Amino acid sequence: MRILITGGAGFIGSHLCERLLSEGNEIICLDNFFTGRKANIVHLLDSKNFELVRHDVTEPVMFEVDQIYNLACPASPIHYQYNPVKTVKTSVMGMINMLGLAKRVKARILQASTSEVYGDPLIHPQTEDYFGNVNPIGLRSCYDEGKRVAETLMMDYHRQNSVDTRIVRIFNTYGERMMENDGRVVSNFIVQALRGEELTMYGDGSQTRSFCYVSDLVDGLIRLMNTEAENIHLPVNIGNPGEFTMNELAVEIGKAIGTEVKIKYLPLPQDDPKQRQPNIEKAKNLLSWSPKIPLAEGLERTVAYFRGIVRQ
Ligand SMILES: NC(=O)c1ccc[n+]([C@@H]2O[C@H](COP(=O)([O-])OP(=O)(O)OC[C@H]3O[C@@H](n4cnc5c(N)ncnc54)[C@H](O)[C@@H]3O)[C@@H](O)[C@H]2O)c1
Predict the structure, then answer these.
(1) What's the topology of domain 178-209+242-272+293-309?
(2) pLDDT tens for residues 77-113?
């Protein structure tokens, strides 16, 4: 198949490019390099089945493809809040452009949505039928609401134009090729611990997150894209339900590095969700998918990657 991956030079996108290429597909990796890096996909450039295109999804584009994975959007708060108007444009105009393309060339399209559509959830764990508790005017809204509108567009193009759509709600994912300075908790803690610095903990560290290793996530994305079932166009959570407090995460990272970590506690930022855990029954039933890599193993691999790039 010929497959377009927007945001393909980013953290998750580069793993997806690698995996789909290794399965014999032709890959068009499209990226504006806002948070993506050529270094993430440089090892794929020699393949005759891999094409890299510098392009911004807010501008229309035309390719003959069979499938589109729409991942283009900065994912960490530091980056999506750097230019919030652009973040909304990327989610909304990017989605319209990709759906227009999917409609025109009759491609199946998968949208990388997010657990952030649940906001600061009032039910726990979060099932796909929960509408969420999102602040529409806060600092995180450019990302959360942008992604919510993108889901709306997916559903409307499906109902109105019969576009073949898939929506995945991705929960926190970690692994090799995360950026070392983007403020996401796993990379932040690992980089600080490797440098022997104190770990910056926002709040008292009792807030929880569930962390999915990137190879498990990529497996879920590919299964969702290639599954046919009634109502398969409705959102599906993909994440690892293993829930850890940030204090526990700090300890696990200390173990993976082989050091005792020290923690500096800072105030919690606005609208930071207190807990987040996916209910993945739907993914289990529809896709026969569940995560395989335990946190300790995923952290070990991620630490090995960061050891190679962080100056200690
Ligand atoms: N990593 C996670 O934990 C997580 C969780 C939920 C959802 N997601 C979603 O998954 C997708 C990938 O996330 P990631 O963690 O790999 O982030 P990332 O920032 O590493 O990747 C995003 C990629 O999109 C590119 N991009 C951004 N704006 C663009 C634009 N206007 N035009 C073209 N390319 C553009 C960036 O350069 C980058 O390569 C995002 O849509 C994100 O919202 C990620």
Answers:
(1) UDP-galactose 4-epimerase; domain 1 (3.90.25)
(2) 999 999 999 999 999 999 999 999 999 999 999 999 9
Closest ligand 1 atom to 182 CA:
19
Nearest to residue 214, comparing CAs of 250, 257, 184, 189?
184
Query: Distance from the CA of 239 to the center of ligand 1, in angstroms?
Result: 16
Domain boundaries in the chain?
A: 2-173+213-238, 178-209+242-272+293-309
Which tokens belong to 14?
């580069």
Counts for the chain of helices (H) and strands (E), in that order: 9, 13
Between 1.10.10.10, 3.30.1330.10, 3.40.50.720, 3.40.50.2000, what CATH number should domain 2-173+213-238 receive?
A: 3.40.50.720
Q: What pLDDT digit, counting tens, does each position of 161-207 carry?
A: 999 999 999 999 999 999 998 889 999 999 999 999 999 999 999 99
Residue 157 falls in the annotated catalytic set: no
Phi and psi for 305 in degrees, rounded to 5?
-65, -50
Q: How far is the centre of ligand 1, averaged over its atoms, from the C-alpha of 177 (Å)? A: 12
Which of the 8 DSSP states describes residue 197?
A: P
The reported pLDDT for the residue numbered 183 is: 86
- Kindly give the distance from the C-alpha atom of residue 237 to the centroid of ligand 1, in angstroms, as a whole number: 17
Q: Find out whether the beta carbon of 5 lies less than 6 Å from any atom of ligand 1.
A: no
Q: Is the minimum distance from the CB of 56 to ligand 1 under 6 angstroms?
A: yes
